[in-house]
């Protein structure tokens, strides 16, 4: 029997149609799969119609990081141009945080454009860097750049540090083992560290920097662990002028090992750490911190420096700002001899009786005066009469240090009375209060040092003493 040739034609065309249909279906479903993944990447955001434009394109980028996919979202809408790099992790909570951050950035940006009658005034660019630590932790660092007008560009940073196995997002509290003393040590170090690099300290706004480095947990949540170092990030123009961009402070982990929770400590060990600033020896050594307030004084301070040198003693001078400028050469001598300088306000008021602003002005003007002469900021603060303005001490970044032995040298003004008071009260870790504006104190000091040295005491600065405790 012969088949009707029409049946062959029909069969062939049916097969052909089927192939075309399958091909088409595969193409469409492949395409929709792609769209789906790009949508789910930034998905909750796309519900906000302002962000979802037909002219948004998401492209998957190569990723060197296991468990992290990276997408680049580009807006081709000429009225709201932007480029955003965002990661998708295997952890839902982190993806949500990232989405929230990126959406907020886009919304702010689009609002800014809308407010300007849809005239493009800026361009948004969010970049991403990823760092891995110990094969367990990832740091995500987002750098958001937004051009405001022709040549001004805002740069701000957002970070996430997380355990890729447990999904836990780690903040400064966890990093520093929930220990406020650890944060205080870091705070003080970070404050000084920013002022070290060439080209930085001229550009840092010392008041803003002081505030940005207060020992408050949420001020330390923008960080990454990168090349075995902790990197802290600050927005452009917020703590320094624009010249240095978005500043960072980088500290080797081995240096801050003692203040890190054990799981974050670096395997690299270092003899030099944040808690052993100078010496690292006999734990049974006896120490005292000699402190001299209310100077500097043109002759008395110099005599005290000479006596301290004779005993290889280091001390701390709490200086009054308005005397600093008059006695610049002595201030420099104090630093040159390796002593510590403390801030003792501008003109010695009872801070409790001052408003917060006035108390802060006393503090900052003195810091600046000392910096202008020596190139260093004071490292400790002591309120006159030991009378603290609590609101003010909460605000400042330097530790507030009082004393444990008051020699009453200002009252006796008698060199032979200095030693007996100290003999009676001194013990290990005493902080001894004297004043380098009384000749009697300078005259009695040699006897005091001879006695303490014979008793086995080492003479350290206040910061060193605190570091040992
Ligand atoms: Zn005083």
Average pLDDT rating = 86
Sheet having the most strands: 7 strands, parallel
Structural class: alpha/beta
User: Beta fraction of the residues?
Assistant: 15-25%
Number of helices: 16
Small-molecule binders: zinc ion
Number of strands: 16
Topology (elements, then pairings):
Layout: H1 5-41, H2 43-46, E1 56-61, E2 69-75, E3 82-88, H3 92-115, E4 124-133, E5 137-149, E6 152-163, H4 172-175, H5 180-194, H6 206-212, E7 223-226, E8 229-233, E9 248-252, H7 253-256, E10 286-293, H8 300-310, E11 316-319, H9 321-324, H10 328-336, E12 340-343, H11 356-374, E13 380-381, H12 390-395, E14 405-406, H13 409-412, H14 415-425, E15 430-435, H15 439-454, E16 457-460, H16 462-468
Parallel strand pairs: 3-4, 10-11, 10-15, 10-16, 11-12, 12-13, 14-15
Antiparallel strand pairs: 1-2, 2-3, 4-5, 5-6, 7-8, 8-9
Helix pairs in contact: 8-15, 14-15
The structure holds zinc ion.
How would you describe this protein?
Residues 23-53 have low confidence and may be disordered. The chain is elongated, with a radius of gyration of 32 Å. It contains 16 helices and 16 strands. By secondary structure, the chain is of the alpha/beta class. The strands form 3 sheets. Strands 10, 11, 12, 13, 14, 15 and 16 form a 7-stranded parallel beta sheet that branches. Strands 1-2-3-4-5-6 form a 6-stranded mixed beta sheet, covered by helices on one side.
Short account of what is shown:
This protein is an alpha/beta fold and 469 residues long. The chain is built from 16 helices and 16 strands. About 7% of the residues have low confidence.
């Amino acid at each position: 029997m012969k088949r009707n040739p029409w049946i062959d034609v029909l069969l062939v065309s049916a097969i052909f149609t089927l192939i075309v249909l399958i091909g088409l279906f595969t193409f469409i479903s492949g395409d929709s799969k792609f769209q789906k993944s790009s949508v789910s990447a930034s998905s909750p955001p796309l519900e906000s119609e302002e962000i979802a434009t037909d002219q948004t394109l998401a492209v998957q980028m190569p990723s060197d990081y296991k468990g992290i996919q990276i997408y680049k979202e580009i807006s081709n809408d000429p009225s709201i141009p932007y480029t955003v790099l965002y990661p998708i992790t295997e952890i839902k909570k982190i993806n949500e945080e990232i989405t929230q951050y990126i959406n907020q950035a886009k919304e702010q940006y689009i609002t800014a454009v809308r407010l300007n009658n849809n005239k493009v005034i800026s361009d948004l660019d969010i970049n991403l860097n990823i760092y891995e630590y110990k094969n367990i932790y990832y740091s995500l660092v987002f750098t958001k750049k937004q051009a405001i007008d022709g040549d001004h560009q805002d740069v701000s940073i957002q970070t996430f540090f997380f355990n890729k196995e447990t999904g836990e997002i780690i903040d400064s509290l966890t990093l520093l083992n929930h220990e406020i003393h650890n944060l205080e040590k870091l705070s003080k170090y970070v404050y000084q560290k920013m002022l070290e690099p060439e080209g930085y300290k001229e550009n840092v706004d010392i008041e803003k920097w002081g505030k940005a480095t207060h020992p408050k947990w949420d001020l330390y949540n923008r960080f990454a662990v990168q090349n075995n170092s902790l990197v802290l990030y600050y927005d452009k123009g917020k703590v320094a002028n624009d010249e240095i961009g978005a500043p960072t402070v980088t500290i080797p982990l081995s240096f801050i090992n003692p203040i890190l929770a054990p799981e974050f400590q670096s395997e690299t060990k270092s003899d030099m750490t944040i808690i052993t600033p100078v010496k690292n020896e006999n734990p049974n050594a006896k120490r005292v911190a000699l402190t001299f307030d209310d100077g500097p004084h043109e002759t008395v301070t110099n005599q005290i420096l000479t006596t301290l040198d004779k005993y290889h003693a280091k001390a701390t001078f709490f200086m009054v700002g308005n005397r600093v400028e008059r006695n610049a050469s002595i201030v420099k001598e104090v630093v040159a001899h390796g002593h510590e300088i403390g801030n003792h306000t501008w003109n010695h008021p009872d801070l409790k009786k001052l408003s917060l602003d006035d108390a802060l002005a006393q503090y900052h003007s003195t810091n600046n005066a000392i910096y202008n002469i020596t190139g260093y900021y004071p490292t400790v603060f002591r309120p006159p009469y030991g009378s603290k303005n609590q609101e003010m001490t909460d605000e400042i970044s330097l530790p507030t240090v009082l004393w444990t032995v008051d020699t009453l040298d200002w009252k006796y003004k008698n060199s032979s009375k200095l030693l007996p008071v100290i003999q009676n009260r001194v013990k290990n870790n005493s902080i001894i209060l004297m004043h380098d504006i009384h000749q009697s104190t300078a005259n009695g000091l040699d006897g005091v040092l001879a006695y303490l040295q014979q008793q086995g005491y080492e003479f350290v600065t206040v910061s060193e003493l605190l570091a040992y405790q």
